[in-house]
Specification:
The chain has a 5-stranded mixed β-barrel. By secondary structure, it is of the alpha/beta class. The model has no long low-confidence stretch (mean pLDDT 92). The chain contains 6 helices and 9 strands; from the N terminus they run E-H-E-H-E-E-E-H-E-H-E-H-E-E-H. It starts with a strand and ends with a helix.
Length: 195
């Protein structure tokens, strides 16, 4: 296991290739909050995203925020949501928009492994229930697009020392989630064989 610091959006895809499943990553720069309704609008309704997603890190979230003067938003609690239900968007996010990292709770199923390998993407695992810590690592909400989808808008967050995150799926075809499932299945078969 190695430790990395990565700044997003990335401009050199080789940075993603340095990351291996199980590595620890701390993120600097910007991350983009996204969720189901946003991705349905982009891919099912054919609406182009109003933010550049090239080289981006996408965080599966629908944050708790408060609107303040001059139309800005301040953070209250910004946590993550379960990723598995959004796996179908992985390939088009990478192929059409150049997204390089996705992060959320609970991991991605095996169907994410091949497109992430082909397109040079990673999935970052984050500890569920760590929203209070994550919120402190978000310095500012810089932009909000598609406010009518609140709270499932597109959010641009400036972050400092966001993490640590674990590389759950890397761009080389490795998945911690797949490995755990394989080991669990083998253990279950071993236990059943004893009876």
């Amino acid at each position: 296991m190695a430790n990395h610091t990565v700044t997003f959006p990335i401009t050199d895809p080789a940075e993603i290739l340095k990351l291996r499943a199980g590595d620890e990553v701390t993120v600097q720069g910007h991350i983009i909050g996204i969720r189901d309704r946003t991705q349905v609008r982009i891919f099912d309704q054919g609406v182009e995203p109003p933010m550049d997603l090239g080289g981006a890190f996408l965080l599966h979230t629908a944050p708790n925020v408060r609107k303040v003067a001059d139309g800005k938003y301040e953070k209250i609690c910004i946590g993550t949501t379960t990723s598995a239900r959004m796996v179908r968007f992985t390939e088009p996010l990478g192929r059409q928009y150049g997204v390089r990292a996705i992060c959320g709770k609970g991991g991605f199923p095996d169907e994410a492994i091949a497109p992430m390998h082909e397109l040079g993407m990673v999935y970052f695992a984050i500890v569920g229930g760590a929203a209070a810590l994550e919120t402190t690592q978000i310095e500012e909400i810089e932009e909000v697009m598609w406010e009518e989808l609140m709270p499932e808008c597109l959010w641009k967050f400036r972050v400092k020392d966001f993490g640590p995150l674990t590389v759950g799926i890397d761009a080389h075809g490795n998945s911690l989630y797949h490995d755990v499932q394989t080991r669990a299945k083998a253990k279950l078969e071993e236990l059943i064989a004893r009876f």
